[in-house]
Amino acid sequence: MSKTTWLATVIVFFFISTISYSQDKTIDSLKTILANPKTSDMVRISTIYAGMSNSIGWSKQHIAFYNQLLPIFSKGLKMDHLTPKMKNEYLYAAGVYYYNIAKKETFDGSDKAPENYDLAIKYWKEAKNYKTVASAMIGKGTYYRKIADWPKTFENFFEALKYYESIKNEMGISHVNQEIGTTCIAQEDWEKAIVYLKKSLVYFDVPESELWKSDRHEIAVINNNIGVAYSRLKKYPEAHKSFLRAYEIIKPNKDPQAESMILVQLANSSSDMGDSTQAQIYLDQALALCKDDLSRQGVYGNAARVYYKSKKYEKAAEYGELSYALALKLKNIGARTGMSNLLHKIYKESKQYDNALKMYEAWIVLKDSSNLEASKNELAQQQLKYDFERKELQQKIMQQKKLTEVKLEQQNKLAAIKLENEKQSALETSRNKLAHQQLKYDFEKKTLNQKLIEGKKVAAIKLKGEKETAAKNNWLIGLSGVLLLFLLGAYFYYRNTKQKQAITLLEKDQIKQKLLITQMNPHFIFNSIDNIQGLIQDKQDKEAVDYLTKFSKLTRQILENSNENYISLAEEVEMTRNYLAIQQLLYNNKFNFTIAIEKSIDAETIFLPPMLTQPFIENAIKHGLSNKSEDGMIAIHFYLKADKLFFEVTDNGKGFETDKKIANHKSLAMTITKERLIGYTKNQDFLVQTDNILDQNTNIVGAKVFFEIPYIYEN
């Protein structure tokens, strides 16, 4: 088999695995979030990642998403007083940007790829994200493998292996072993290739029912490359068995490019075992599946080999030249080397000596440039270096552990001696103190006895005078006591009366709030039932059932919360989210919504009166977006300002008419809600503030309603 096939297999499978698909609606939603100027950096970065995941690899859309990271992390990393978490987010985003640039440059054959891989490694190391550091090293090694720089290829792969082992990432270890094995195939070191590739299969030793689509892809790649190694060792049955396993595992994925590469290998192994008819069937199936230059280059190369074995030299030369031209276009030195050698043999045996000489000269030049033998030694050197460093590290760890144990033992002994000395010293001190206290006690006792004798004489004289004085003052003390008792009784009676009045007032307030909520519940329920009835009349049974399910969940939340004076902000947000989901269904998904809570707010410890926000959200949908049939947007924001909690709802609808504002849109629910807010704040001048949102040309592009929400904080 020509080297064209081996390298094509490696590179095609590597890049196919990066492709993912998404629905257009998802991409449009993500673009809407990014277009919002109020979206924070962290949300923008997360949205860009989602956009990349939902785009086809290296499409204009995919590139456009990761290019948006550059201004975000460049500005973010220059900011002062970044928290460690935010700094790591910016560093990770920088790594993602440069890693994707490098992967695209690897795909295009640009020599700038290593420089950008190094930048990705730098940022990810600073963020201490060693899993991604290892993946960037694998990417860098893959670039060097593509240009046949074998020493740098192995150097990067083994560095990645060290990182994966240090963080005990089994999937990463499997992937590195696969890349090393695949590189051994490109070097024609077949025995080592099989060893490393089989190591990588250990990770996937699980029942097939538990495998993901990506797992099937990886298993197919590994088995395919094991088959290549067996075929070069002329172990054709083992090779054919590995190719069949690869084909069986990839078929459920419905991946035509991967299937075509494996079908080519099955054609080769069938030809090797003398079954030319089956080989031709496999080859025809593979050619029918080719969709791009990279897969065509590999399939054409293998077709040339199959026809060469069948001595159909004209067909063999035709497919060989096509494969060689594509390898030249893709700058794939290994593929050109293998195909030039095969074409030399084809032309020589078909007696086209000029063409044979031309291809022989090309093969010599390309073979010398790849320096295969030197690179094989590099693998052995890297393996020895890796084993030595790991062993040396383990020895250092053991030595450090022993030193730590000895040091700890010495510290324990010293601490025990010190403790014993302190005990002895304390005992001696306590004895001295006891003797001193005894002497002091005896002296003070003698002095006290003398004073007691003298005091008794003085007390007898004083007692006599006091009895005479007490007789005169008893009547005055009695009168004062009666007066004091009267004043205390009056004070406690007054305080008890005030407390009862305050409790009665509070209970009246709470009853009023519950009555107001009770007034609003029927309004919402009747509106919702009308909506369900409308769906049924329009024969939208499925939508009606879906609406009814969500409505029942929301109704349960509303009825439960109606019995509470306060609920947590988290519960209010959950109830609002369910309400908006129902409204989306009702309005045929003509709008999207976002709910944002300022990071400084703990939604579980902030408590507020229930259902204060729903009427204003309903107004934004029903009236604000009345001119919209699609692409509507409702944005809800809870934030703190001067320790006051504010609610804000914005829409991208027709806005308020300057002379009418929100006054003409007051519903019963909004009137009740304002009464509740006045009740809670005790402020008759309470104001719900409204504003139009203007663009650069002062055109109205939406509306905003915001007001303060009374709340309590529970620590």
Automatic annotation (TrEMBL):
Keywords of the record: Kinase, Membrane, Transferase, Transmembrane, Transmembrane helix
GO MF, one example: kinase activity
Gene3D superfamilies, per the entry: Histidine kinase-like ATPase, C-terminal domain, Tetratricopeptide repeat domain
UniProt cross-references to SMART domains, sorted A to Z: TPR
SUPFAM superfamilies: ATPase domain of HSP90 chaperone/DNA topoisomerase II/histidine kinase (SSF55874), TPR-like (SSF48452)
Keyword Transmembrane helix annotated: yes
Bilayer-spanning residue ranges: 475-494
Keyword Transmembrane helix: yes
Segment forming the signal sequence: none
InterPro entries, sorted: Bact_2-comp_sensor_kinase (IPR050640), HATPase_C_sf (IPR036890), Sig_transdc_His_kin_internal (IPR010559), TPR-like_helical_dom_sf (IPR011990), TPR_rpt (IPR019734)
Domain (Signal transduction histidine kinase internal region) ranges: 513-591
Pfam families reported in the protein's UniProt record: His_kinase, TPR_12
Identification of the protein by name: Histidine kinase
